[in-house]
Amino acid sequence: MQTLKEEIKDRILAAALSEFEQYGYAQSSMRRIASTAGITTGNIYRYFKNKDDLFHALLEPTYIQFIKYTMDIKEAIDQTNTIDAFETLNCIQLVDDTLVELLKESSVEIKILLTLSQGSAYEQAKQDLIQIVAQILEKVMLIAKDIPALHDPKDQLAVQMFATTLIESICIILRDYEDGSTIKYLVDEQLYVFGEGFAKKLNR
Question: Rounded CA gap, 185 and 181, in Å?
Answer without folding.
Answer: 6
